[in-house]
Amino acid sequence: MHRKHAEAIERPRELTEKSLLLLKRNRQRRFQTGTGPGGKKWKRKSPLTMMTTGQSVALTLTGLLRESMAIRIDGDDKGAVGSSDFRALVHHEGRTIKPVRAKMLAIPVTREAAMVTSPRKIAGLFSPKGKRVLARSDGSGGLEILFILKSQVKIPERKIFGTDKREEKQLKEISKEHLKDNI
Question: Cα separation of 59 and 164, whole Å?
């Protein structure tokens, strides 16, 4: 075997990094397109959520989940693309979520609300009598709704992870280029 060819095969870390970076970018792109592996469209947001957030593509309100995608390399030739954010698995598999320590779940409907870990951290919130929302005064006599209160929510499956034929083709091209460049 030619010496350069042997070195390219013996040094697979660069190929592993390139491959994982491609997969990470593709996972992040899925948040923009609202599609899973193979181009399968994610279930749309509910009409109420679309109305209150002004966005129709799911999982894009804060960008935190998209930005949580990361790569991990084990040795030279193994690795994974994943997320340390527990919500990634919830959305990937779909789940019904019920409150554990409270009577109701507080579902954020604004970017500000989505950025806090608890409604208690936002000053001036209250629940108008007979309404299942948390709101605050908007300063001009009206209300600004920040959270909708629900007894449970069903998160539909929105596949984030998984490789499709297009990605397999891209990975083969990266491998060919790696060998070509290193021989």
Answer: 21
The answer to whether the CB of 160 falls within 8 A of the CB of 91 is: yes
Is residue 68 a contact partner of residue 83, using CB atoms and an 8 Å limit?
yes
| 92 neighbors 157 (Cβ within 8 angstroms) | yes
- 41-76 per-position pLDDT tens digit: 988 877 766 766 666 677 777 788 899 999 999 988
CA distance linking residue 124 with residue 112, whole number of Å: 14
Give the 3-state secondary structure of residue 156: coil
Which residue type does 9 have? Answer: I
Q: Where are the domains of the chain?
A: 1-97+154-183, 99-151
Nearest to 91 by CA among 75, 74, 68, 111: 68
Residues 6+ apart with CB under 8 A from 97: 90, 105, 152, 153, 154, 155
> Helix, strand or coil for residue 9?
helix
How many whole angstroms separate alpha carbon 158 and alpha carbon 169? 23
pTM above 0.85, yes or no: no
